Amino acid sequence: MSTPTGRIETVDGIRRLVIERTFDAPIDDVWAAVTEPERMARWIGTWSGDPATKRVAFRMLFEDGDSSEDVEIRACDPPRRLAVTTHADGQSWQLELELSETDGVTTLVFTQPAVGAAEAENVGPGWEYYLDRLVRAETGGDPADVDFERDYYPAMQEHYRAQVTG
Question: Which domain does 38 fall in, by range?
Fold first, then answer.
């Protein structure tokens, strides 16, 4: 089992999921891995459209069924910050990425604000899974080796449940 690294923080009365990953790579390379459709396709999905319109269509590649989403780009400050809102199946999720580099090591901080208590135990393991797939893709491994059902869900649920009930 993978060890959960994410945490639930409460800021101004609002819960948010926070997960960090580090990369022995320059910030521009990590930015490309999380924004270029071809690079993203290795670990999560791909997008199409014109980002200049502040909207793109995103398609998850590793989910069951059709997982097409409309994505609103709220902020984009390459190569440091990306904030989006996804819209699918009547739900909206705010997602944010912050990147920083020190001595050739880039830290990615993923945040999902407004995570409800009931959602935390599900979205926490899901984002741990996808971010580990990103790490695997960017370190030369095979993202397919990252096993959601064996290592993430339900294995990580208690970690997140305890943070919102404890």
Answer: 7-165
